[in-house]
Amino acid sequence: MSKRALICLSILLSTLARAAEEPQWLKDARAREGNAKPAVLKSKDNWFKARVPAKVIGDIEKSEGSYTVELDIGSDQPVYCEIMPEGFDMADMVRRNLEFTMGQVAEAQGKVEARSLESIDAGVFGNVPYLQTQWLYRVNDGTAQRLGGFKQISMEKNDKGIYCAHVDLGYTQSFAALAKAFADTFESTTDAPAPYYEEIAVATMGGKKIGVALTTLERDADGDTKAVETTAMLVPGPAGTLHSQDAVHLEWIRTDSSLINATHFIAKDGELTTSVALNVEDNAWVVDGELDGKKYNQKLKADAQPGTWVAQALGLRKLLSADNPVGAEHTMSAWLADDPGKLTDARTKVIAKAGDKRFKALATAGDMNATVTIDKATGTIDAAEMEIGGLDMTIERVYTKGAF
Is 12 in a helix, a strand, or coil? Predict the structure, then answer.
């Protein structure tokens, strides 16, 4: 995990409380589960297939760039899943579909008078990152009030987006099992070879897991590396609102770990707020694109030399291989999305050993200050702690595969 990924994960969190006690009828409604047997589902054009514990309803066809899947898990309401071959912004997919589904609920059941976020979660199924929410809502059709439930999960596998949702108070475990089966068994005819290195981290704030960060390294035919850092974050707000932040940072890196070019993309609540690229023009580094809806063009200082995620890890790896690295510091000039018109010093100072294979360090870059744990063998950060808006945030790596 890089400092840039830590910065992308540094956002505010509001929490909503759930009632401590519930009536028996609500407990009974929640306790319902299905017992569907595993079945193979396949798109009509044979582009994808998966094996899930549900009955497939109708044909699965591609329409307007995505596949819609309707599944019976024993509930009166089917589970709806959408498969997007080109991928999607994981967090925004949850936020947008919350509003869309609540609109459908209002048409079918009555005015949605209130809704609350019962739970929010982030994690991995194997190497598939996910974001998940569960909602409770109250509707009024003019004659009576009723409670309803809504579950969502957003996943990314092999650059494909998978989103599933279910309008029902119960079938929580059945829905979770279906989602995991999708993650475990989904495959398509356009799946690319696996990256030679990948890692996934989960962000926790206010005691809730709210975000994921996926980092991959791929090598092209020339030996250059494509390093992609993708982060997705859900931010609960007041009165049942939900905010999303999705970010992608891409670096093309030479075999000597120097930078070829880079880009930053950040979307908040579905609106692209940052879209900037860093390239060499006439022997100078130039930033070009859009920032907060305005054209942005800035030439970096003549002596600017931006570092890379790989160079930072290799530098820390070398620093930690010394007999006694405590007190030593690694510094690199980083190109960060929050201030793209200049380079920012990213400093990592080793402060103590943390067992035989790790060291504790202080990491600073711009306004970010974090206590991190660094894997001695790889030079990568596998845990971090920081304070954001008076709340403690922790970031923990939960999956890694490969080497560089």
Answer: coil
Cα 233 from chain centroid? 6
15 token code pair: 């929490």
Confidence of residue 166 (pLDDT cuts 50, 70, 90): very high
Q: What is the pTM of this model?
A: 0.91
pLDDT by residue (tens digit) across 278-321? 999 999 999 999 999 999 999 999 999 999 999 999 999 999 99
Determine the pLDDT at residue 4: 53
Q: Where would I find the beta strands (DSSP E) of 158-224?
A: 160-167, 187-188, 197-205, 208-219
Q: Taken in order 87, 91, 92, 95, is the CA torsion positive or negative?
A: positive
- Say how many residues make up the chain: 404
CA distance 126 to 179: 12
**Given the structure tokens 């250059």, which residue do they identify?**
224
Q: Judge contact between 149 and 136, C-beta under 8 A.
A: yes
Question: Domain locations in the chain?
Answer: 24-188
The yes or no reply on domain 24-188 and CATH 3.30.450 is no
Q: Which helix (H) or strand (E) holds 105?
A: helix 90-109
